[in-house]
């Protein structure tokens, strides 16, 4: 699990400090404070990291091997700040590996390459926390070199940045509850504008995008990963359906397929409900023959429309099934949500809406 620390700067106002410390109770694994805020931070009920005093994690302002050894012999958890401005600083990091429980890395100039080098150096030996000032930088640090840093130390006075960073860290692999819906009807409906979403990721069998005619019932459409004698696999692509369909772009938001464009977020989901965020590489719209699929789950009827072709497959509990072979009585995986309207993709439970 990735860790989130919040650093409370002594220059922040008393009100800002109080708000951040209170929020840390819900969002953070540790609070990094100076001596004057130590007692107030203890009220949050999470680990306290500080340079002195009674704390859970002792933080060295720079790596001192003898000091680190002394603290470790006393059974203390030790963190050391390291700043990398050049290759010579990376050597200092190498010396600290294994001597400290945590390294708090600050890369004030180049952000990516030094972090990649340090991740490779520290992996499995010391927990690496990247110092960041916003959620955007936190996301970058958590994905650098694929494995990412072990966490971040966020220094900000913004509660919004704290909340967004917490979301990025704590929801690395959110799980969506998928259920089996029974197909009751299929109908060819002629030609329509069909959307293929090419992502910036690679998918495997059982993974795809959730989409449907109603925002409250979305079908898991598999990526083009199934071997075929006629076309090559394209594991980055999902042939989703017509431009009017809803697609799940995050845990809390849907987008019309017509809205999506290169750089936008979209959610990849597997048959177990595990999901991950990726980005759209491009959207390809072409006119193709379409097929309406209607299914039922606990008395509720949901629908989707897909291109009528053998390469389009819906995900099942054990595998996937081509829509060309789909028949009444077959069961496919869907995501059912509570009813309500959608305002720019966000659920409004209280709004009454009829979708059919």
Question: How would you summarize the topology of this molecule?
Answer:
Blueprint: E1 3-7, H1 14-27, E2 30-33, H2 38-41, E3 47-50, E4 57-60, H3 65-73, E5 77-83, H4 87-96, E6 102-106, H5 112-122, E7 127-132, H6 135-143, E8 151-155, H7 159-170, E9 179-199, E10 207-214, E11 217-222, E12 237-242, E13 246-250, E14 253-256, E15 265-270, E16 275-297, E17 300-307, E18 313-315, E19 320-322, E20 331-336, E21 341-343, E22 346-348
Parallel strand pairs: 1-2, 1-8, 2-3, 3-4, 4-5, 5-6, 6-7, 7-8
Antiparallel strand pairs: 9-12, 9-16, 9-20, 10-11, 10-13, 10-15, 11-20, 13-14, 15-16, 16-17, 18-19, 21-22
Helix pairs in contact: 1-7, 4-5, 6-7
Descriptive overview:
With 356 residues, the chain is of the alpha/beta class. Helices cover 19% and strands 41% of the residues. The chain has an eight-stranded parallel barrel with strand order 1-2-3-4-5-6-7-8, surrounded by six helices. The chain has a six-stranded antiparallel beta barrel with strand order 9-16-15-10-11-20. Helix 1 runs parallel beside helix 7, helix 4 (87-96) runs parallel beside helix 5 and helix 6 runs parallel beside helix 7. The protein is elongated, with a radius of gyration of 25 Å. The protein starts with a strand and ends in an 8-residue tail after the last strand.
């Amino acid at each position: 699990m990735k860790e989130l620390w919040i650093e409370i700067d002594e220059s922040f106002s008393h009100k800002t400090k109080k708000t951040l410390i209170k929020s840390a109770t819900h969002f953070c694994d540790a609070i990094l404070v100076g001596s004057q805020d130590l007692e107030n931070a203890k009220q949050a009920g999470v680990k306290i990291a500080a340079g002195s005093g009674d704390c859970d994690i002792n933080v060295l302002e720079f790596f001192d091997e003898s000091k680190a050894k002394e603290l470790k012999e006393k059974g203390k958890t030790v963190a050391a700040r390291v700043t990398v401005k050049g290759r010579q600083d990376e050597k200092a990091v190498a010396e600290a590996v294994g001597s400290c429980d945590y390294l708090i890395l600050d890369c004030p100039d180049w952000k990516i390459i030094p972090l990649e080098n340090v991740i490779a150096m520290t992996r499995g030996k010391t927990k690496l926390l990247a110092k960041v000032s916003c959620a955007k930088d936190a996301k970058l640090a958590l994905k650098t070199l694929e494995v990412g840093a072990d966490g971040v130390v966020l220094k900000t006075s913004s509660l919004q940045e704290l909340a967004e960073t917490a979301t990025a860290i704590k929801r690395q692999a959110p799980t969506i509850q998928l259920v089996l819906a029974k197909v009751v009807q299929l109908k060819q409906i002629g030609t329509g504008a069909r959307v293929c979403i090419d992502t910036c990721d690679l998918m495997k069998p059982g993974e795809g995008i959730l989409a449907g005619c109603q925002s409250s019932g979305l079908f898991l459409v598999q990526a083009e990963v199934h071997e075929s004698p006629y076309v090559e696999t394209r594991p980055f692509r999902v042939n989703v359906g017509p431009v009017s369909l809803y697609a799940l772009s995050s845990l809390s938001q849907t987008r019309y397929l017509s809205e999506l464009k290169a750089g936008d977020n979209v959610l990849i989901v597997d048959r177990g409900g595990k999901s991950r965020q990726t980005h759209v590489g491009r959207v390809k719209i072409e006119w193709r023959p379409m097929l309406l699929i209607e299914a039922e789950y606990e008395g509720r009827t949901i629908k989707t429309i897909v291109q009528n072709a053998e390469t389009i497959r819906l995900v099942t509990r054990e595998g996937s099934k081509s829509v060309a072979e789909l028949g009444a009585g077959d069961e496919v995986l869907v995501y059912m949500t509570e009813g309500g309207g959608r305002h720019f993709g966000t659920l409004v439970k209280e709004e009454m809406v009829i979708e059919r």
